[in-house]
Structures are given as structure tokens and as C-alpha cells.
Amino acid sequence: MIELNNITMNFAGAEVLGGIDLRIAEGEFVAIVGFSGSGKTTLVNLIAGLLRPTTGKVIFRDEEVTGTSAQRAVVFQNYSLLPWLTVHGNIALAVNQIFARESKDEREDRIEHYIQMVGLSHARDKRPAALSGGMRQRVALARGLSMDPDVLLLDEPLGALDALTRANLQDEISRIWQEERKTVLMITNDVDEALLLADRVIPLSPGPAAKLGPEVVVNFARPRDRKEINHDPGYRKMRVSILDYLTNSRPSERVKLTKKLHLPDIEPEDISHLQFFEKLLPGRGPRRRNELKTESVEVAS
Which whole number is the average pLDDT over 101-112? Predict the structure, then answer.
């Protein structure tokens, strides 16, 4: 369904992505993991059509991607909800745009279906300011799904959530994917999350000129129980493999510090005959340089 052929991306002369090749089949759940700043969001924006690659092509259903499309919906990390609209209103905004030819009742049924799917029926008339972070992300997810896209692009959708809320939404995403069977590309920096949700996990090396590393095929049966797979030797092997690649491909950071030393205006004290001088000049410490005087002494012979 999706092909990336030798994609490179430059910003202001800096190469962010270098030589990306990727194939994603229809109905597949693929996760790309990497460090922050490695170019993961740039990759999502290229597939979504929000950016054009410097070189190479993004192919969707045998056609080059030249712009955005409702067939490729994005769920952003920062929710991107309109604050003056309710839960219902934010989802309706997408549904009314994409399914304008449907009747009002048909569109309303579609909106209610996805509100119920993400468990927000009790909050349908609340605005984003009255929702928790997890609830806002549910709205964003429902909005993306309500467009009935062929591909759902998840750009670190759970990155800003606390651990407990994140775990709950991971389970929700897994459940929804099994119901909808959409093609999903998920971007994350959490290896455990990727292994829990995806069919394939592909690490992205740190930039500049980031590249995709060796993929890991996750063959655990669904639905997956995080407690069971955490104790599976195969799971630990996959996890170590991904982490080793990411760690070893990260360039060593060398920090060069330049420090200018300012010496005090003090002449070191001669302590070779300390006891002798202490008797002559009791309590006299080191002399400052500006206190030193040059005197000329004439001695008559």
C-alpha cells in the first residue's frame, strides 16, 4: 500500500533523512522507533503529504504522493483539537468535511459510533479544556478513525501521557485496530509499546541522515497480554536487538570545553623559611603583585 523509495530530506542544508526505503502492506501495523530528533515526525509528514522529499518518492496505492489526502489520516502528539468545539464538534468537523454527501442522520450516526468506540459518550458535550490528556488523545484518535482512512498515521500519540493512561490507551489502540483492521504506521520512542502493538518494528538510526535499521517481526498472537510477553524469551531478544541497534548507531558525543583561567593578583608566598619570616613579619601573608615595589640601593664601598 505504501512505498518509500530512497527518500532523503534536507532542512536548511542539513540532511535529516538519508536513503529511506520502506514497504507497508495493507492491513499491517508497523511501528518505527527512534530517539527524539531523529526524523520520525518528518517521516510521517512525508507519508501524509504535508512535506515533499528532497529526493526520492512516496508512493501510495501505486501513485506518487504530492499532497494531503483524507485516505491518510494523522493523529498528532499534541492532539490538535479546536478548543471552542466539544468532543462531538471536533469529530463532526472531520465527518462533515469527508462525508458531505451523506445525510445529516448518517453523519450523526457515524460521529456517535466513534465517540462510543473510544469510550467518550459521557463527555461528548465537553470542550478540550475540560478533558484530561488521555481523553483529548481519545478524541484525536476518534477524529482520525471517523474519516475512514486507508492509512492511520500515529505520530507519538501517547508520548505526553502518564504511564497508567498510556497503558490504557495502548490497549484501546490494539482493540480498535483488531476491530477496524486499518493500515497503521505508528511512530514512538518506546520499544515496549512498539512490540506490544505492531506486527513489525523498525528502528530509525539517530540523525543526521537517519536511516532505517533491520526490522523485527513480532509474531505474538493477538490479543496480546503485556504480562505474558514480558516474560517471553523471544520478546526479550527482540527488545535487546532493537535497543542495541539504536545505541550502537548513535554517534559518540564529544564535548570540547574552552575555559579561560583568571589568575588572582597574588604572588605566591615563599615558605622555605616560613618560621624565620613569621618572627620578623607576624601575620603577613602573600603579597599582591601591585604591592611589589622596585627600589634602588647604593652601597658605599
Answer: 94
